[in-house]
Amino acid sequence: MIRTRANKRAGWVAGLFRTGDGGFETAPVASLDLGFDGIAGDRHGGITRRSGGREPWYPRGTEIRNERQLSLLAADELAEAAARLDVAEIRPEWIGGNLLVEGIVDLSWLPPRTILMFSGGVTLRIDGDNGPCRLSGRAVAGRYEGRDDIELGFVTAARHRRGLVAWVEKPSRIVIGEPFEARVPEQWIYG
User: Fold this and answer.
1) What are the DSSP calls for 104-132, one per residue?
2) Helix ranges restricted to H, the chain
């Protein structure tokens, strides 16, 4: 077994986004009001959700706890994925992001159970990394004419760079520029 000590890291909110019409892509907003159900009216909001391809142990459509209320992304990781695809950029809103954060190195590698404590009162609990999918790849490919390779290429290029999914542990409002502290728990690596 390998043990790593608990630690804290500082970051800040660089962008906020939400769905508007029930679609996959998000649009920029100045603030997000978060409840225990996530972002009210957002595509990924709700206390529960329906299972899909990420949960092959359940029949599709089984009602389960929604640990995917929010999608967190990092600008440096998006830039790295874009470079791997040889495209100018990947914007958070293209791939359904809700929070763009900065200041946390290797955001996508933060472990489950990490708590993000925002200065305005919100606390988010990290469930884990957000595995890249073809739907996101298709959204990126739609911005680059003639690049049909991006839809599937995104899955490889964004692996461990697609950010994290989280759920609301303590509701309140998040605003752009707001600082937060990531509290990374002590870990015992099983293996």
Assistant:
1) -TTGGGPPTT-EEEETTS-EEEEEEE---
2) 75-85, 134-141, 150-157
Q: What is the DSSP letter of 94?
A: G
Q: What is the pLDDT along the chain (191 residues), one digit of tens a residue?
A: 888 899 999 999 999 999 977 678 999 999 999 999 999 888 889 999 999 988 999 999 999 999 999 999 999 999 999 999 999 999 999 999 999 999 999 999 999 999 999 999 999 999 999 999 889 999 999 999 999 999 999 999 999 999 999 999 999 999 999 999 999 999 888 77
- Name the residue among 1, 33, 35 with its Cα closest to residue 18: 33
Token match 């957000």: residue?
A: 130
**Residue 30: what residue type?**
A
Please give the backbone phi and psi of residue 139, each rounded to the nearest 5 degrees, phi first: -65, -40
Cα 111 to Cα 164: distance, rounded to the nearest angstrom: 9
Distance (Å, whole) CA 169 – CA 146: 43
- The pair phi, psi for residue 14, each rounded to 5°, is -95, -20
Pairing of strands 164-170, 123-129: antiparallel
Q: How far apart are CA 24 and CA 44, in angstroms?
A: 9
